[in-house]
Amino acid sequence: MSIEMANKNYGPRISFQSNMQKQAIGTYVTNSAYRLDSNTALLCFPQKPLSMTLGREIARLGEYSNVTNITIAMITAWGKNIEDSTVIDGASIDRGLFDIKKIISKQCKISGTSVELFMKPPLDSTRNYNIDCNYDKLNEDGTPKIGTILYTGDIMIGKVKSITKTEQDKYKHTAEINGNIVMKYEDKSIIYDGIIPAQVTQVTIIKHPDKIMRVRLLILLKMQVGDKIAAISAQKAIVSTILANEDMIYDENGNRPQLLFNPTSIAKRMTLSHMGAAAIGYIANKLSEHIDTTVFNDLDFYNNIIEEIKKFDPNCGKRVMFNPKTGTQMKHKIFVGEISYQRLIHVIVEKVYGRYTGSISIKTRQPASGRSQKGGMRFGEMERDACIGHGATSVLKNLMYDNSDEYVNYISSVTGHYCVGNPQRNLYRDSGNCTQISRVRIPWTGHMVDILLNCCNISVKKEMEDNVEINNQCWRNYTIPYMTKYEYTALLSARATQLTYNASTKIKYDSNMSTIDIARKEYDVGLLDNYILNRKLPDGEKKYVSVGALLKYKELI
What we know:
Blueprint: H1 11-23, E1 39-43, E2 51-52, H2 54-58, E3 68-74, E4 85-89, H3 90-94, E5 100-110, E6 116-118, E7 126-127, E8 149-150, E9 155-157, E10 159-162, H4 165-178, E11 185-187, E12 190-191, E13 198-206, E14 211-221, E15 228-231, E16 236-243, E17 250-251, E18 259-261, H5 264-269, H6 272-287, E19 291-292, H7 301-310, E20 318-319, E21 321-322, E22 334-343, H8 381-389, H9 393-402, E23 406-412, E24 420-422, E25 427-429, E26 437-443, H10 444-455, H11 485-494, H12 496-501, H13 515-524, E27 532-536, E28 542-546, H14 547-556
Parallel strand pairs: 2-19, 3-18, 4-16, 7-11
Antiparallel strand pairs: 1-5, 3-22, 4-18, 5-14, 6-10, 8-13, 9-12, 10-11, 13-14, 15-16, 15-22, 17-21, 20-22, 23-26, 24-25, 27-28
């Protein structure tokens, strides 16, 4: 009932318009200046539609309008309004076309029995004082100044927690030693984290039963590239280009349209009522009255609309237009009419987001998801297929592996299972033959799948092709028994000079100490780790093993 000439449209388009009607920004109440809604938006300059329907009259959408009447030209604008994109005059936007004001309310609560209070935190006696934020826009009672503009990082509500006497006495001794002042408060202020600057318009404090402070903020959102608009005839469009006034086409009188609409969208979307609404708007503008366009009201293009237009213009609304770049007359005449458009709630400035680096998920080691968590951009299956189709495999690897969950693992070429590796010290360990180990780069999620399968008692064996074997220095074959009395005496003799030189370290050797324990003590006090210990291994072969090597073995096991 609210769609003009709905019988001229394709059936599903009527359902689309019903959804877009809910997203349209208009005037929902008349006392919005006195309300504290948590999140709402208002159209700054609403207008009554040129063409009214019975449904709009019943819903009183003429009084509480959600549309703006604009001048539209049916022309393809140099490829800038293909499909559902459109071009808008920048001078009209500067004059307030489709401006909306967003109203948000933030609140902070203090319970009656709490030690918290609203105030501007003092710098010299407040713990956790955020020096990166701006406290200058607060009054002494913690309320923001009316009319001030808040930017990202400004303190919106001043709030502190009183530190108890017990806590003050606890840190008083330390503070006096360091020459600091004993802190009396802990900062609990609320920071404005919005991207768009906001103006404080109202502050309300409720004192019963709990103390609640509510701050009303006003944000002005002008039309930008990427915002959505829609006509009442279910023609949704996205602003693709905002032209400067001197770059917009004009007629012989110098009049310029406010929007350039691609006429091929009418045939493709089968919304003939959009053309009819522009023609009826032209007639309503000439007659200075509203025209009823309710569905099935016997309005006909040839018998009613075109004949009525010819009374004012023999060319049926078509005008001679001039190219703004060359100043020459266009080859064909362009139809120019008036139509009502709605601005939808989807605002690009609230959706656009980008990051270079940020937080990652602990579980998957991939970038976190969502703008609220400052996560990364989603690279889905369709984007992946597009890269594969263009042969951009390096771009695909960079996005899905290098900038995501890159992980280096070591796999035994014999057993096919994961190994323990330390590339800094070139030490690797495996339950089998550790001399044939390959370095493999896989996503962490792939490694996590193997871990989950192992939990289900399922072992996955990896077969390696073109193995990259590592020059392995594994110490797993060495056994470190306890020292004998002879070895203990020999070690004391060898260390006599160093023990005298490092008497302050007070190393006490014990016959029950192992070589690893001695190496650890000598390493801790800074003794040399190149002492060579001649030991016999169980296989009878003589090996010369340094204390430093034994220490590295200790760290591995």
